[in-house]
Every structure is written in C-alpha cells, then in structure tokens.
Amino acid sequence: MTTVNKETLKEQLSQIDGFICDMDGVIYYGSKLLPGVKEFVNWLKENNKSYLFLTNASDKSPADLRGKLLNLGLDVDESHFYTSALATARFLASQSPGCSAYVIGEPGLINALYDQGISMNDTNPDYVVVGEGHNYNYETIIKACNMVNNGARLIGTNYDITGPRDGGIGPACRAFTAPIELATGKNAYFIGKPNPLMVRTGLRMLGTHSEKSAIIGDRMDTDIVSGIETGMHTFLVLTGVTDMHTVDKFPYRPEYILKGVCDIPEAFRD
C-alpha cells in the first residue's frame, strides 16, 4: 500500500458492500491488463461484493468491453458495465424523447443512442453529441459548429481531457469538444463523471447505499471528486494518469491512495 496501513485497509474494505470501478488506468492501460486485476475481481466475487465497471469512455458497448476483458483473460458479465455513452443516451431520451443528434463518436455511442430511440441527423439535429472517435476531423468540427450556431445543443459524453493510451496519454472528450465551444461561444453539457447523474445511476444499479459503497479510479478530477460529492468512500490508484505529485494540486484528497487494485486482495493475505 502507498499511504495506508494494511489492517486499516482490510477493515474498511470489509465494511463496503459495493464497488464502482473505473476501467482505463484501473483495470487496464491501453491494451494491457494491469497487475493484480484478476485477483481483485476474484476477491469481489468470492466476498459477494456488488461491483460495476463504470467508464467515461464512450466508444465501446458493454459487449465490446466484455470482449476486451475476455481477450485479456478476464470473464465479466455484460451486466457489470456502464458507460458514458449509455448515460448520454439515457439523458437525451429523458430530456427530449425521439430527438435527433449529429454524433462525433464510435459505434458504442451511436448504438446506445439508437437503442434509446434517438435518430442520426447531419442537417438540423436537436443535439450535437461529442465523444471519442476516429471520425473527428476539421470537417466534422465545422459541421458541428454550424449546427450549434443554428440552435443544436452541445453535449459531451464525458469530462476527461486526456486518457491513457498505448504508449502514453492522449486527448479525450473534453479536448475534442473545446474547439466547438471556443468557436461558437456555447458551453457543452458533459454527462460522464464527475456529473453525479452517472454515478447515482451506478449506485442504483449496484443496489447499495453511498455510505456502504466505494469508487476506485485513477483521476482526481473525475473519479475521486464524484465519489466525494456523492458520499462514497474514495480509492485513488496510481496505475493511470495520476501520480503523487498530481494529487497535491487538488484542494481535496481521496480517503485511500493505492499502488493499484492489486493492493486490495493483498490486504487480505496473511
């Protein structure tokens, strides 16, 4: 453990019924499973803990994420995944049933919107929705700006400005949305963490109270702050974008700082 006594950690973990876990930088980094993840998931199952992998990434569906973990040697049912794409689709359907959207993003986002009855529209959409995607380019930015200037509301799937990628750190949704905001003078509404909409939905899916739940993440500005604001226990892991020097830049702190999720099953070893 990095900053916590093993017995203290063990006692706290024993009192937690449900875990919300980020994925990038917590479960895997790019295309590599992080150390101790298999042991951590086995610990969750063996101790009858409710758990949900809740990710700000919008490009993949729960089926895609399950497939990715299977390829990495980890079998997790689709019911244990919730993405910012699903949260965005749910939000738009609740705000404007049957609306249309111009989407900059991958199939995980587009299919989530379709499943909620939201149609694709590249002429006069109700919303411009920005996620992470390979179709992001100057032409799509121009189209998005024109649509927003013509009255479409701007939505970002998540608030991450960067994310872990193979070989380092790359831009994420907020970085992709920024040029549209700057060019139009309109601020996007971001759905994913730290927006409490997504975390509260995760808690309902877990079926646990916030005081008996924990969030595990690698980001202070999304994972940890959302846990604090919803009254959950907070565990920061140092396997993603945050290191100990980064922690000191924020006016709040997590309850626990761990090397990685490997510290959790390790706390129960004699």
3D architecture notes:
- With 270 residues, the chain is an alpha/beta fold.
- It has a six-stranded parallel sheet with strand order 5-4-1-13-14-15. Strands 7-6-8-9-12 form a five-stranded parallel sheet, sandwiched between helices.
- The protein contains eleven helices and 15 strands.
- The radius of gyration is 19 Å and the shape is elongated.
- It has helices spanning 6-14, 37-46, 62-71, 84-95, 107-115, 138-149, 173-184, 196-206, 220-229, 244-247, 263-266; strands spanning 18-21, 28-29, 32-33, 50-55, 81-83, 100-104, 119-120, 127-130, 153-156, 162-165, 168-171, 189-190, 213-217, 233-237, 256-258.
- The longest helix is centred in the first third of the chain and has 12 residues, at 84-95.
- It starts with 5 loop residues before the first helix and ends with a helix.
- It has two domains: 6-56 and 194-260, HAD superfamily/HAD-like (Rossmann fold, 3-Layer(aba) Sandwich), CATH 3.40.50; 85-190, HAD superfamily/HAD-like (Rossmann fold), CATH 3.40.50.
Work out the helix count.
11
Helix content: 25-40%
* Termini Cα gap: 15 Å
**What pattern of helices and strands is seen along the backbone?**
HEEEHEHEHEHEEHEEEHEHEHEHEH
Strand percentage, roughly?
A: 15-25%
The total count of strands amounts to: 15
Structural class: alpha/beta
Strand order of the largest sheet: 5-4-1-13-14-15
Mean pLDDT: 94
Radius of gyration: 19 Å
Q: What is the CATH first-level class name of the largest domain?
A: Alpha Beta
CATH architecture of the largest domain, by name, is 3-Layer(aba) Sandwich
CATH superfamily of the largest domain: HAD superfamily/HAD-like
Shape designation: elongated
Largest sheet: 6 strands, parallel
Count of individual domains? 2
Low-confidence stretches: none
Which fold name is given in CATH as the topology of the largest domain?
Rossmann fold
